[in-house]
Amino acid sequence: MLKRKHVAAGSVGLVMCAAAAILVQQKVGETGFEPMCEGAFQEDAAQKLFPGNEVNSRRPRYGGVVGSHGLLTECKAVAEDKKRLATISIGTEATAPGVATQANQKPLATNATSAPLGAGWTGVLTVDGGTAAHATVVMNCRAKGREHILVNVKYDLAGTDTHFSQNAEERLRLAQATTVIARKADEKWKCHAGLGKEVRQAPTDMVMSAPKPLSQATGTCRSLRSIAREARKWGITKAIGTEAVAEVPAQDCLLVNEKDEKVYRLSALYGPLARGYSVGAIINGVPGKAGRDEETPGWAWSTARCHGTESASLFTAASLTPPFADYEDRLTVSADFERKLLDAFGSKLAEQHGCASPALP
Questions:
Q1: Which residues of the chain have pLDDT under 70?
Q2: Torsion angle, CA of 98/92/349/211, rounded to 10 degrees?
Q3: Is the pTM of this model over 0.90?
Q4: How many contiguous H segments (helices) and E segments (strands) does the chain have?
């Protein structure tokens, strides 16, 4: 039985700021696990995230209240040895700007790319460096009066001898726990979404995957085969993609040069995450249907209207700074080729998600 010590305080808001937490310690029985996050985080999920550990739970006060900005509940759990920390946030589509930030979908000009959770879940796992990862599920509610419920679990490792990129078990642990939490949230808030099955295979970490020649690209990068010859003129010869599945809320493709440096990131966001990014983006903004940063080349975007919904998908192209290099050393391509990147990447994925062809800058 997983034991838990309880630390509780006040209400929660959307933006994360641990320094603002007000904590009041309250001991709970040593023989059971008291559910957290309105019952969405129970012992089955806790055992996956904190194997063999007692857990301290926290409900931090950030200045907002549950219900503001669509937040339904939020809680923190940390292993007694402080080597594992999980932050669980659950909300309606109104929380999308915050979730886009928490799930590291903003900014999109980094290597923190997303891979499908798998097993039919409408979610992704995003590795953010070696010791932090996020799993995000966007549930499409069938119940009247509610469109989506978003579940985001941020999982941090501290002082451990492992990290997410090298250890598939850690990624699987996070994916499984998040889907268990999502299932409980679906039941608690009567979303009645189409849910996936048990995740049995760890989501990939794109950054650690071996690149393939662009002319043989697969998955989310497959449609870029058509521009492989022209890409070579810009030094882009390879690509890293993930499985292209229609149910995920975010997709990525990394473009790689002859030195195996990742030089461009192509990203796609759908539904609430697309809207959330558009609302919350200050740096690397995406005003209008499409555009390109002319003052600082290396950032372009396009959108596509999706059938049967008021939402639009968002496609971006971002130049990446190579390791140990200056920002000015980034690869920047011409406006014409950036447009071709967005067209080749976005058109096929938009079609897969039931969206029209993207508007181009």
A1: 1-32, 53, 57-68, 102-107, 280-283, 308-311
A2: 50
A3: no
A4: 6, 16
> Beta-carbon neighbour count of residue 271 at 10 Å?
24
pLDDT for position 34: 87
The CA distance from 81 to 55, in Å, is 9
**Distance from C-alpha of 65 to C-alpha of 101, rounded to nearest angstrom:** 19
Cα 17 to Cα 13: distance, rounded to the nearest angstrom: 10
Phi, psi of 25 (to 5 degrees): -80, 140
pLDDT at residue 187 in the model: 97
The residue length of the chain stands at 361
Single-letter amino acid code for the residue at 153? V
For the beta carbon of residue 186, count every other beta carbon within 10 angstroms: 21
What pLDDT is recorded for position 295? 86
Neighbours of 90 (CB within 10 A): 30
Residue-wise burial string across 43-80, b where 16 or more C-beta atoms lie within 10 A, e elsewhere: eebbbbbbeebebbbbbbbbeeebeebbbbbbbbbbbe
Residue with tokens 């993207």: 358
What confidence score (pLDDT) does residue 13 get? 34
99: enclosing H helix or E strand: helix 96-102
Q: Do the Cβ atoms of 102 and 13 come closer than 8 Å?
A: no
Cα dist from 122 to 135, 248, 322, whole Å: 11, 5, 31
Q: What are residue 332's phi and psi, to 5 degrees?
A: -125, 135
- What letter represents residue 344's amino acid? A
The count of C-alpha atoms lying within 13 angstroms of the C-alpha of 308, restricted to the half-sphere facing its C-beta, is 2
Predicted confidence at residue 63, as pLDDT, reads: 36
Break the chain down into helix, strand, coil percent, rounded to 5. Answer: 25, 30, 45
User: Looking at residue 9, what is its pLDDT?
Assistant: 34
SS3 251: strand
